[in-house]
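Fold this complex.
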Amino acid sequence: MENFLWHHVSKEEAEQIKREAKKIMDSFARAIASVEKEISEMPFVERKEQIREESEKKSLQDKKFRDIMFENAPEKEQDYLKAERGKWK
Amino acid sequence: MEIKKKIKQFLDEIEKNNKKGKAINAILEINKNAEKESGKGKLSGKVIAVKSNINVRGMKTSCASRTLENYKAGYDATVIKKIKKEGGIIIGMTNMDEFASGSSGETSYFGPTKNPAAIALIPGGSSSGSAAAVAAGFCDMSLGSDTGGSIRNPASHCDIIGVKPSYGLVSRYGLIDLSMSLDQIGPFAKTVHDAALLLEVIAGHDEKDSTTFNVKIPEYSKQIEKIPKSIKIGISKDFEELCQDKRINKLIEEAIERLCKEYGWQKKSVSLKYVDLAVQTYYPLCYVEFFSATRKFDGRRFGKKIEEVCGPEVLRRILGGSEISRAEFHGLYYRRALKVKELIKRDFEKAFKECDIIICPTVPKLPHKIGSKISAEEMYSYDAFTIPANLSGICALSIPCGKIDDVPVGMQIMASAFQETKMLQVARAFEKLTEK
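Structure:
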């Protein structure tokens, strides 16, 4: 039991949340298993790999967009956004 | 009324009751250029607030999260472009559950939103601020997003109208996604006319969102005045049995009786045997798609790394999504949930062969007090009646239906995909009865 108000999550709480999340998903998976027969008979169409065609982005020629993009960046230098390799992992 | 005067009235009300007075906390940022942006068109003179997960150029699209607390949108979402083109005035950005992860309006980094219709109770979520802003008289209309009920649930609790369009009717370009296969942007308003008007402006095909359908958009705001001569109202025992407060069922039954008596419409019992699995089907899909969607919040190009600064509910969905999408669980959660989603969709297709619309309560229980201790499963059950419409891609709305213990109760009207006209006509017919 907990309330849903925003609060900072400690490492210990994060571990607990992870365990709970899995537990909830497992209980949901068990509920879904009640229609196992129906879903096992359903054809399932696999999606083919689809890659969007990239075109030259007009947004980069838009000065205001560019200014806001740099304003949003945590670290930048002249015309570059700075990011250390692997920092986001 | 002169537009400058109208904007000033709304701004005065926001000043009086958003942070001070009733402290509704619905508006996170005011658009200082609102007055200058007024124009001519279908929305001329209409003042609109926008959920903080929809990009409005130059405004903060924070998703009510510390992750994006200083993130400024560099472009307008398609829906915003359309609103501006039709002369609508964006008054500001609204509070919401953090990254739309919540059903109560409590999970925002900027504090919970209060319910103007029942001040100690939750306003519902995740589009809490957008619903509360309309209910509190901070604007004429607002935009929210609905993935599992995030428009209809707060509309029900705040005693206003909220519409979830059919999947593919409204462009999601510029919406920061929660679950891309289910998200839809839709309107809130105090009247069916205003909700219909805003919907007809934002609807339509968009080459920037490949899920949008190229269908002709009717003038909903005019069409709603035609009351259908013959309507078969579908009623399902499956919803009735899931309803946690039988007083809500009674209120809905009375509303249906009034519609049938006044307009000579018929009732038809329909079977929706898989709706009891809606919550259990929705959350695995939502967790996995949300985990995928949040990988861009790595703190490089903008904002902060999400896992380091988000609240508990967002973290639950990220960690849960990460866990169940691991290779070793291939097919066990997400793929299986996709199949049950299809079962539910077929269930509705079959039901709509026997009736024109389906009516049920919007939410199966009354809202709790802000800050109450409840489990995640209890929280998720708020959306038990709204999730099926998202899973099956159909349209649905919530309209005020009455009160229990002075707490508003919404009635949900659902129709087949792209049958918004019929759904809004039935809503308008009901609204006329309540005006009497």
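Chain B touches chain A through 63 residues (CB under 8 Å).
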